[in-house]
């Protein structure tokens, strides 16, 4: 099923997982998926490390299991910067064979160790390519605080509009800790003529190392109250975790109250934390909503 159809009549709640590291057995993810599956999210997306290998089978196998073993719709992430068009066709065919209907079409991060191929310079080029080669619901990434390489937030929005016009059916945002960034971004996107469903990305922060890594990768701002929370509990792991969960719950309650199209929870493969957040907010996602977005067929 194309998951963009879900936005027609409900506030969507989705989860994100990543494949286990190469040193861990693939099977280690399945316990997590089973537990996440019990929470009945609207879909689960599976990341794909942009390391230049054609090892998308791991992502595709997990996305296949999410759908066919655990009965939850799945989304496969697909970063393109390190692939040729030929390689991309192979991956698209594998996705078709696995019965995956939803692709998060990404450029991927440019890393110093891998020389990018030139076939897909931007995610918008991948979106057009997927459109030519299959019938998928295509999802794109967006950045409420601007992408780290963006010249200006305005230019980033112009580029996002190009990606949507290329055939993106739905958007999922980068994580953020100040909801106001998301609301301002959502309004600006609507003013630019971007009307596809846009989910808000929320990451529960449960230890200090995790947030330091995220700031380095994503360049997101930390509000004062978040910093105070970190300072107060940094030497008390259990309290830090509880405060991080409470903070994420607070963000979700506010987002749903402000009629977001959906919330995408970066679970970090931690089903216990996902369960605690889910327990606190699940009922908010059961209230029918008036459609405010354009959903493509
Ligand atoms: P693009 O949309 O191509 O944007 C990248 C930059 O190029 C932006 O600064 C944009 O403004 C600029 N740009 C776009 N078009 C043009 C143009 N025509 N001319 C000039 N500049 C332009 N990475 C992974 O490797 N694997 C994953 O599984 C993964 N999952 C993610 C999930 C989500 C929800 C998000 C938000 C990000 C994810 N990423 C993942 C990270 C993502 O790959 C990086 O943020 C990457 O740097 C940008 O990818 P993009 O698809 O947003 O790129």
Account of the protein in words:
With 297 residues, the protein is of the alpha/beta class. It has one domain (3-286): TIM Barrel. 43% of the residues lie in helices and 14% in strands. It contains ten helices and eight strands. β5, α5 and β6 form a beta-alpha-beta unit. The longest helix is centred in the C-terminal third of the chain and has 21 residues, at 237-257. The termini are close together. The structure holds flavin-adenine dinucleotide.
What is the gist of this entry?
This protein is α/β, with parallel strands linked by helices. The protein is 43% helix and 14% strand.
Kindly list the characteristics that best describe this protein.
MTHF_reductase_bac; binds flavin-adenine dinucleotide; amino-acid biosynthesis; 8 strands; 297 residues; 43% helix; eight-stranded parallel barrel; 14% strand; Methylenetetrahydrofolate reductase; 10 helices; methylenetetrahydrofolate reductase [NAD(P)H] activity; flavoprotein; TIM Barrel; alpha/beta; globular
Write the layout of secondary structure elements.
Blueprint (H helix, E strand, L loop, with lengths): L11 E6 L10 H11 L4 E4 L9 H13 L5 E6 L5 H13 L4 E5 L16 H11 L3 E6 L10 H13 L4 E6 L3 H13 L6 E5 L5 H11 L5 H10 L3 H21 L4 E5 L4 H11 L16
Parallel strand pairs: 1-2, 1-8, 2-3, 3-4, 4-5, 5-6, 6-7, 7-8
The structure holds flavin-adenine dinucleotide.
The site of flavin-adenine dinucleotide (FAD) has 25 residues, from strand 3, strand 4, helix 4, helix 5 and strand 6.
């Amino acid at each position: 099923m194309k998951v963009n159809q879900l936005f027609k009549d409900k506030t969507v709640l989705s989860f994100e997982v990543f494949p286990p590291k190469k040193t861990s057995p693939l099977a280690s993810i399945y316990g997590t998926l089973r537990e996440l599956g019990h929470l009945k999210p609207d879909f689960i997306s599976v990341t794909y490390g942009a390391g230049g290998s054609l090892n998308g089978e791991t992502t595709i196998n997990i996305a296949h299991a999410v759908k066919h073993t655990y009965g939850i719709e799945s989304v496969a992430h697909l970063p393109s910067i390190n692939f040729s068009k030929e390689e991309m066709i192979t991956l698209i065919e594998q996705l078709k064979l696995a019965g995956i209907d939803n692709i998060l079409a990404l450029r991927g991060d440019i890393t110093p160790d891998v020389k990018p191929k030139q076939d897909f310079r931007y995610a918008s080029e991948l979106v057009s390519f997927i459109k030519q080669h299959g019938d998928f619901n295509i999802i794109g990434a967006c950045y409420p605080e601007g992408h780290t390489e963006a010249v200006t937030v305005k230019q980033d929005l112009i580029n996002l509009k190009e990606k949507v016009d290329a055939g993106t059916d739905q958007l999922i945002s980068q994580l953020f800790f100040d909801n106001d960034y998301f609301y301002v971004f959502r309004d600006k996107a609507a003013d630019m003529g971007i009307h596809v469903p846009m989910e808000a990305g929320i990451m529960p922060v449960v230890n200090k190392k995790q947030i330091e890594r995220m700031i380095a990768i994503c360049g997101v701002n930390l509000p004062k109250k978040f910093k105070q929370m970190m300072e107060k509990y940094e030497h008390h792991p259990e309290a830090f975790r509880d405060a991080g969960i409470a903070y994420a719950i607070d963000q979700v309650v506010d987002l749903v109250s402000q009629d977001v199209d959906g919330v995408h929870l970066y679970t970090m493969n931690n089903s216990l934390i996902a369960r605690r957040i889910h327990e606190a907010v699940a009922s908010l996602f059961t209230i029918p909503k008036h459609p405010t977005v354009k959903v493509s067929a």
